[in-house]
Design a protein that fits this description.
Layout lengths: L6 H21 L5 H8 L6 E2 H8 L7 H9 L3 E5 L7 E5 L1 H24 L2 H20 L7
Antiparallel strand pairs: 1-3, 2-3
Helix pairs in contact: 2-5
């Protein structure tokens, strides 16, 4: 089977194109696609490091370099959770809030562009198929070939 005959090939090339476009745009604002994604997902009341790790599909310990970089850029600060001293929450600085708004605007404009060029029925079908692929992926057991 050729790579271009697999579903995951198309998922990967499309996501790479989207991520590259976001990186290209984000670089004009001094951030990356990954930083923008993280900023969008840090809430006003703070977000636990474990929540961010789960969202990104990485271990909390793997985030330390990225979070340190974000602190050095003045985007975030960390604070021990008062309710649970074992947990650390991430908060946005005023500069981080500014960059979060930029990231949200970039995502909104890009999606408006896509929506102008993809019919509602196509978007609906795409969402349905992607949800099905996700469900099947989670259910897939190579041993049982379900």
């Amino acid at each position: 089977m050729k790579p271009e005959e697999t579903i995951d090939y198309f998922l990967k090339i499309v996501w790479q194109s989207v991520a590259n476009k976001y990186n290209q745009i984000a670089s004009g604002y001094g951030i990356t696609q990954a930083l923008g994604y993280m900023l969008i997902n840090i809430h006003e009341e703070g977000t636990a490091v474990s929540q961010i790790a789960c969202l990104l599909g990485v271990k909390s310990t793997s985030l330390s370099r990225t979070l340190r970089n974000m602190e050095e850029l003045g985007l975030i600060y960390r604070q021990v959770d008062e309710a649970d001293k074992r947990s650390v929450k991430i908060f946005l600085t005023p500069f981080g809030k500014e960059k979060k708004q930029v990231a949200k605007d970039v995502v909104r404009k890009f999606n408006e562009y896509l929506n102008q060029h993809i019919a509602e029925e196509e978007r609906s079908q795409l969402a349905m198929v992607l949800n099905k692929i996700n469900k099947l992926t989670l259910e897939y057991d190579p041993e049982n070939k379900r």
